């Protein structure tokens, strides 16, 4: 990375300082400058309101990623800010449990089709890892089939280029299959008969294809295949939860997984995530070790309850697809008038989750 941009002197100065004291220069790899066009975008943001953000040099932007997905209602949403302030005055965490743990868990069981029981955490990696542990505990098996991205814990991170420090043997237990190609998952069950504890996957933007033979969509076929082979079906809803529909991609595509993982937009920027699922599997958490200091802290829990009630009352999630399609049509007009090529996929993504690639001819 070279070249300096006079528009971002403060950003560039902070970046030079960061590289001296922070490994990789950033706490979140997806926010690092190597994920964007260096010199053409800022590196540090200081404030936001609605869909707009300001950088350390005073420039203002529309933030389409919306903090990588968590900001579902917008920055500085009045009732969210009020809820945070009120909660902070009453205390952030306590020696004993808080009533909000029960109230939010009950709310999630009303909204998410597969949710009969709920456990909270702080990050997506927390709950995807817990889901895998539960699946292994339920089945007595070790192998995991996966499609998509599922966090930074060893069981998944071993598949990435940043796998230094993870025992190589971990990688022998996890196997990739291709989204919308059921034959690749079938092949894994054939290769590891009676050994796969769970199939974990996300919906990566493209809708699941319809199997012309069974008339089921891909997610439904995956669920059926898991049932046939005695493996748990885990749906990672970090990106799709409360966006594709109030109950996530599972509700939209009419599939009920055994376990599901939610986070990101669940707290409108506050760190909170949830593992939900069927009672027969979730009850294994009585014996599976999954405990941390902060999952039940009331600091983060009132926001999902508030956010979900707002979504429920306004049916806000049902408008995201319409907005995404409207944005896509606008880009289409720009393409025709400006000589651009672009590609978009998926009609159900909410703010920050309409991925569009634009390149010059």
Structure description:
Helix 2 (78-90) runs antiparallel to helix 10 (302-314), helix 3 (99-111) packs parallel to helix 10 (302-314) and helix 6 packs parallel to helix 7. A 7-stranded mixed beta sheet has the order 4-10-9-8-7-5-6, sandwiched between helices. The protein contains 11 helices and 12 strands. The chain is 35% helix and 15% strand. It folds into 3 domains: 1-63, no CATH class; 78-313, Aspartate Aminotransferase, domain 2, CATH 3.40.640; 319-361, no CATH class. It has helices at 9-21, 78-90, 99-111, 124-139, 154-157, 182-191, 218-229, 248-252, 279-282, 302-314, 317-338, and strands spanning 45-49, 52-55, 60-62, 117-121, 143-147, 174-176, 196-201, 232-236, 259-262, 273-277, 340-344, 356-360. Strand 8, helix 8 and strand 9 form a beta-alpha-beta unit. It is α/β, with parallel strands linked by helices. The longest helix is centred in the C-terminal third of the chain and has 22 residues, at 317-338.
